[in-house]
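Kindly review this protein for my students:
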Amino acid sequence: MNPFIPPFGLRTRATELRCQCGFMIIEPIFVVGAPRSGVRLVYESLSTCGGVFSREVPFIEPLTEMPDLAPVTRGWDSDRLTAAESAVIEHCHAMFGNHLRDRDDLVPDAPDAVDPAGVVRTMEFGLTNALRVPFLRKVFPRAQFVVVEREAPAAVSSLIEAWESGRFVTYPSLPGWEGLPWSFPLIDGWRDLIGAGLREVAIRQWSSITHRLQVDVADLPPADVVRVECEAFLSDPAGAVRRIGDRLGLVMDRPVPIHLPLTRSTVSSPGRDKWRLANPELVSLAEPPGSAVEAREIPGGGPVGGREPKPAGPPPPNLFESTYSLSILELLAASSCSLMISTYQSGRLISLREEDGKLNTHFRLFDAPMGVACSQSALVVATAREIHGHQNHDGAAQVLAPQGSHDACYLPRNTHVTGDMGVHEIVLADDGLWAVSTRFSCLASLDALHSFVPRWTPKFITELAAEDRCHLNGVAVRDGQVRYVSALGRTDEPGGWRHGKGTSGVLIDVTDGEVVGEGLAMPHSPRFHDGHLWVLESGKGTLARVDLSTGTVETVATLPGFTRGLAFTGRVAWVGLSQVRDTVFRGLPVTTQPDRACGVWAVDIDSGQILGWVRFEGIVQEIFDVQICPWRHPGIAEAGDDVVGESFLLP
């Protein structure tokens, strides 16, 4: 009997099977990552959410334990499975369907795990799944993947500890293997490690699994991949679970755990930088602070003609690539500037700058960075729970680069803890810093005593509540004063903007609260430039100009992605593009584009012509903000850097 039935419910292309009790199993969510990266911790935390169904014994266990797929049957090569195992895919389908029909424990513990149509989503855990993404995707064409990442030194140190404990042995009698019994997934090329020390084995195992996972998920639609940094998750588990749940489209109506218990896989008590005491020699695995990635040049300024081939051999675990048109260098040089780009999805602030005649991408890690404000003297970055202030120090720039390649250095000066106010854009106006609180539907400023100080709300918002009622998201400054905001709807109910997000967006004048533009498709990044109000209609992938006298919105350019993040230099608009999530943006015109890109596009604001582009591949898939930095080659220091310890700003 074929266990599959036609597409049903909200997900029209899902793998769906009906079991004996009448429920529908739809779209597994796989939590994957290298061992000791926090995979079980994230899995157990997400399993507490509403709208997901998990069991101690995974639903997919019968598939991965099929004899035809076991390493012993395939010459003990590895635990990896790919879509090439097509000969057994149909058998997997039938076995999985029969397995579900035979299960008597499919009634979820909580009623909210089953929707009115009887649809159930499962949460799946298993360390070997990190090596089986193509196979799992083939069996479940609409599966989603939560990819958990952890800094290399901490993960490898924990991996060594776990091997030594003997609690995680997977192959006690692996043919030809010497030393401690093999623990965790079996990797390709394991025979090359026979006779190697445990540290070398752990490093190779971690890097092999991490690299394979990064390459595999890079081939998936961005909407089906959610990346989680273990360190950021631990610092704010409640906020992280809420953000991940939102990305996955889960029902977030259960209490979110605030204090996470130790998981059963914990070997010894956790501690900050524990690895430095246990394995200090692993410091060489740490990503150098602010490591720079060299982009590849492509002549011309038109669209990218096809995807570049993947590099041979294992690249760094955090796979990142960028390509760019040579015209980008000319445009930046003509304006004597660089770009600051926030990408909350990958947890990075990117400084895009010229270096030795090439384009350089300089990373700084932040917890889900969103809004950015930048001037000659200050750099401010808004993150999931904090707003970080930096100050430019000429002397520090000289320390960073005695030869003079750095013309500025932003030193961290202060951090303001806001809590999860849902800060989106921030601006530096004449009267100080302003922030958009999307959760509380207001504009806010900061003081020394409070999380934030509400300063303005739209007329249609009746109370201050953490309910994201209209998805207020952008703010524009005119003549030094906060003047315009963007919102996705004029609604006064929790999450009400979601119902008409394709046509209900508005632009509002802060001075009188009146709407100056409406009927917009998910407007973001309002800016006042050259005497005009500009906005990105993200749902259409366009750059538009607003006639303030009539409210008419004129499309200037249509771009290949979800437009969000906008800055200007003269007659050039710098527009951020993202590869959009179908779970949130389904039904919008931008989702019909065949090859949506992530990066920054330069547009002539008079003609709408594309002047150049930078395209990101790999871990960076979504951009929030794009800002001009008035320095050609700025440095951004971190609190632990030596230059910070030896730099002092005095009155």
About this structure: Residues 56 and 125 are 9 Å apart (CA to CA). Confidence is low (pLDDT under 50) at residues 1-24, 100-114, 286-294, 299-318. The chain has two domains: 24-252, 319-331+353-645.
